Structure formats: C-alpha cells, structure tokens
Amino acid sequence: MRIDSDELESLVALFDDRDSVVSTLVDERLASFGPEVVRALRNRADRETNPAQKGAIVERAKALNINFRLADLQDFATRSPGPLSLFEGSWIISSLLDYTLIRERYEALFFRCSQEYLAEASDQRTGVENIRILNHIFFHRLHFTLYDVQLKEPQYALVSDALRTKNGNPFALSFLYLMICQEAGLPVELVCFPGGFIPVYVEGGKVLFYINIYRGGEIFLQDRLQAFLKAAGLQIDERTFRRRDESAMLTLYLESLLYIHSRGKDDKMSVLLDRALGILGPERYLTIEEQD
Description:
Mean pLDDT: 90
Order of helices and strands: HHHHHHHEHEHEEEEHEHH
Structural class: alpha+beta
Number of helices: 12
Radius of gyration: 21 Å
Distance between the termini: 51 Å
Number of strands: 7
Low-confidence stretches: 288-292
Strand order of the largest sheet: 6-5-4-3-7
Helix content: 55-70%
Shape: elongated
Strand content: 5-15%
Number of domains: 2
Largest sheet: 5 strands, antiparallel
C-alpha cells in the first residue's frame, strides 16, 4: 500500500494524544500500511528536530516493527514441510531486534559473500575440498573474525552486524557459514548437545567430518571429537548428541541472543526474544550456566 505523506504526518501529530481510543486507531491505521510504514516512520524521525517527538516516532516504529516481524516469524515457522531458508530466518530475527535494517542492503551484503564462494564452487570436488575452499574464502578472503566467545557483547551477536563488520560471536559466524553452505547446496548440518553444537558434513546419511568454527573451519574426524570438546571446556556424553538439520541454527541463534541480553539485564529484549523462541517451538539446545 502506498503511504500518503500527508496522512502519515497527520498520524504522527496524534502520537502525543493520551486518549487510548485515539492511540488505538492511530496504531491500527499505521499497521494497515504494512511493513513499509516502519521505514517511512524511520525516515520521518530522521527529519524531526524536536527530541521528544523524535523519540515518540522511533518508539512507534519499533513497536510496529516488532509486531510485523513476529508475524513474519510465525508464518515462517509454520510453512509447509521442507527446508527452512536460513537467509530468510536470519533476516526476520535480525530485523526483529534492529528496526533500522533495510532488506535490500542486507540481501546485497549476503549476496556478495555467497557469490565469492559460488564463483569457485564445483560438484566435481570432494566434500573436504569444497569446505577447505569455503574456509579460505570465509576466514581469509572475506576476513570474518571470531569475537566474544564468552557471549558478553551484543554488538557481536547479530548476523546483520557480522555481515557488515566481518566480526561476530560463534553463533553469528556459524549462522553465516551455514547460510552460505545452504545457498551453495553443501550438505552441512549440526550435531547438537547440551550447551552447544558442531557443524558436520553429511553424505549418504552419514557424518563424514566435523567443522570447527572456532579455528577457522578446521576439519576433523570422529577420533578427535573428544579433544575438541575438551578444548571447549565440555565433558559431554556422545550419547546425548542429536543430529539436526541447519534449521536448528535458528533456535540456537535466538537462544544465544536471549542469553546475552538476559546476562545484560535487558528485560525488555529478553521478553521479546523469549516470545520469538516460543514461536519456533519447545526444543532447546543450550543449557549455559552464567559464570561470574
């Protein structure tokens, strides 16, 4: 729906009206414009010189964005059976938390990264060869760098920020890595266990090898799995391992975001992330105990 600038201005003028009926009608009319109203309000806020009015516009835009993105997530999670698009999921979740994200720019950033690998991909190579090429491109040519292994800093947590800055925590970088794998058709899944996960390359229904995102995508076999877990400070019974497709990364991503914001005592964001996790279902993979 086209957003008439004069009508939008009239609605913005009513933002300070304390009448609950008026406020509800304004919200309903804004929502009827669809998700594009968020960008329109963001642009309007950029032109506002009155700090109080600017703040009111921003808060309205954020509230509308949350409603739209939660609805998108609900639709995304309940679509007909089949592989879930990690790109689409990452966009919905990242834009849920950052109302300033512009989809066209987000797509362009990811397209540039995925094309770096797709330009050199070949189904004539072995799985090991293809992952080594991806590792070289991802970590050395594109310079994606691991930060905040302890999950303390929100600025390294969003996939969208990692795309832009090339710096991300283990969950953000793993999500990006799997997004490229999915785009390229590489059969990379996850082995999940209480407290974490490991990307694995699957062929013929069997795990061929494991991928260590913490060490530049290092490839290792089953016989080194316990050494990997020990280096990560984990003592995990392999009987608890559960192989999951890459869509489990969506839940892991949200869990990591909830952990970071709960740790930072951001109650409002924690409630929002808990709602988002509820939409994806009851399964959880992380049981992280906060360390002092």
